[in-house]
Amino acid sequence: MTDEDFLVRLREIVGERHCLTEPGMRAGHETDWTRRFSGSALAVVRPATAGEVAAVLRACSAAGVGVVPQGGNTGLVGGSVPRGGEVVLSLLRLASVDDVDADAGELTAGAGATLSAVQSAAGVAGWEFGVDLGARDSATIGGMVATNAGGVNVMRHGPMRRQLLGFEAVLADGTIIRRLPGMVKDNTGYDLGGLLAGSEGTLAVVTAVRLRLVPALAHRSVAVAGFADAAGATRAAAGLRQRLSSVQALELFTDAGLELVMRHASLAAPLAPRQPVYLLVEAAGTERTLTDDLVAALEALGLGDTAVIADDPDGRHRLWQLRERHTEAVNAEGVPHKLDVSVPLARYAEMVERAPALVVEADPAARTVIYGHVGDGNVHVNVLGPAPDDEAVDDAILGLAVGLGGSVSAEHGIGVAKVDWLLRDRGEAAVSAMRAIKAAWDPAGILNPGVLFRQ
Ligand code: FAD
Ligand code: MLT
Ligand code: ZN
Prior knowledge:
This protein is α+β, with helices and mostly antiparallel strands and 455 residues long. The chain has helices spanning 3-14, 23-30, 50-63, 115-124, 141-146, 154-157, 192-196, 230-243, 255-265, 290-300, 313-324, 326-333, 345-362, 392-403, 419-426, 428-441; strands at 19-20, 43-45, 67-70, 87-90, 97-101, 106-110, 127-128, 164-170, 176-179, 205-212, 214-215, 219-227, 247-254, 277-285, 308-310, 337-342, 367-373, 378-384. The strands form four sheets. It has a seven-stranded antiparallel sheet, sandwiched between helices. The structure holds flavin-adenine dinucleotide, D-malate and zinc ion. The site of zinc ion has 3 residues, from loops.
């Protein structure tokens, strides 16, 4: 089959308007959010139903053309954009949010529904969704399942995998597997939905999922405290977690990052004088005494006089912006190398303190901006300066994380950015087991070739 015949078939399936071949129309789907990864697609197709997804996959299988599933394209490891010549399968039109069960606290979301849309629907039903992250207006539920996205509330509610009750997905040959709505308790063999969480588009295309919701908590407080070093902030994070069952986010950032955010987003410093390291804590609960309890916990840790606290929506939002806007502030400075690692909490401060020196050793001109979800041992090391394909700083930081007993990807995934590190992190036996699963689900290897495993 010629490329032209193949494109005619794709147009028959999704309609002329939803098969994009013009370079200008494809462009936004061909470069990732960081601008570090890009490639050209044969076409971008936008199916509207699981049936159309299945037909597209059947056509791609028959033609032996690779497929890159894509949601909001906010992924940070290059897995959502083509390497060259694939079909980008955009799931954005599968955006329904329905079958909300307000008694059970569950809803069904199409793969293309944004996180914000799910959060709103949960709120209308008197619940909340357990995962939250800064890209909420663009990141899709399908992409979040595929990356097993984490975000700021993992310490309380877990990552995406923990929210899954049921799923619908399409295999490479067009077979639809459906377990919807799905049950809270369901021990009928392998957890296929759980396997899709973190599969990064390499096993199947997720078209819909059933999600559990969590109780809406009426009272919330956010505090930011300053520290001389990461060790102090990490100790305080552990202390807060031990003292307060209402803690649902513990975030760390440094003064270098704060400086960037303040400049980029025109925000004011939370504390005077400025401090080298900051810890943001959010408590949420049903108790009216929530803020008093947070204050008492901060006082018990010797932070009562220095921390700034807000329990009104505007004040909380202002404090959260200082942490959440790091990603865009770093992106505004250049094309970052984003190294998302996790280490045991006991090594967290060491990771934060040692990373900048290792970066400078690998590239004397590079700048490092560090922040992270300290409650989960997750450190985000962002490096500005090295060329996109220069991996010296990546190797230095990922090597440090592995050496400290950690993981080379806490929440962003492997994508194409860390393919060579999967083996070093997980070892031969685990990677062979993963390859066997890949071969069983996608024997021709058309789904996201080059992601997770080198082709
Ligand atoms: P995409 O970027 O489109 O795709 C990501 C991966 O999933 C790719 O491998 C793609 O092939 C695959 N995929 C997409 N849709 C499907 C599907 N339907 N079926 C099968 N595979 C699919 N991540 C976190 O974990 N925590 C954070 O706190 C966080 N904060 C962020 C803040 C900002 C400002 C930005 C830009 C990103 C952030 N991210 C975070 C990263 C990103 O938002 C997540 O990885 C998110 O899950 C990606 O969703 P997406 O819809 O944009 O997926
Ligand atoms: C975050 O925690 O802000 C996100 O994971 C995005 C990033 O690492 O920049
Ligand atoms: Zn993060």
